[in-house]
Amino acid sequence: MESSLHFLITAGPTREAIDPVRFISNRSSGKMGFAIARAAAAAGHRVTLIAGPVALPTPTGVTRHDVVTAAEMFQAVISLITDPAAPVDVAIMTAAVADYRPVQASIQKIKKTEGQCQLTLERTRDILGSLRTEGSYRGVLVGFAAETENVLTHAVDKLHRKGCDLMVANDVSQPGSGFDAEDNEVTLIFADGTMRPRPRLAKAAIADDVVQAAVALHAARS
Ligand code: CTP
Asked: What is the pTM for the complete model shown?
């Protein structure tokens, strides 16, 4: 039995302001990430959770940092992952981070006019994809791939592109599974090419699987 590890988990959506009353976001509820945080804490691990705007209680024993934007989430994750005082052993990035944000949020509420309105967007930083490079992170790295087509092909590509040990792939086109749902149906894809398809399960059961797989990956390298 391995001793207690430090888990760093991101969860939920991010929000990118258009003006003081509007934002770009997505349908992520944060339930998967919070379930993983709960499972890791219940297994006796130290857990730091970076949460976007969600309506969920903090699981018992979890240290939570709330953020709003992708830039805030990036800063929070990089500063925690490079903190020598509390080295991270397992990083699990479940957040549905906005890939684009308005180039400039309007200070005043945008008034409607006749005809079309155009928003100019710029890319946000890829948090998961920066951990091995900018974060110089060497611990176990787990990503989530929410896809609507060619699920496994896209997930395998993301696993290698982002330097992950494990990618949890799910088909979010299935009704009742994935985004903002109680259940999920995932395939665990490991860097050595092993694929472990799981049946449709409650997010709490998938969380236990993911935590156990991450702990096993940690044990295998040390
Ligand atoms: N991710 C992240 N930072 C981003 C975008 C994604 O950390 N700016 C992480 C997610 O938390 C997830 C993984 O990357 O673990 C995959 O996210 P996904 O949105 O499926 O992938 P993208 O890299 O955005 O790829 P694409 O838009 O091509 O599907």
From this structure: 0.96
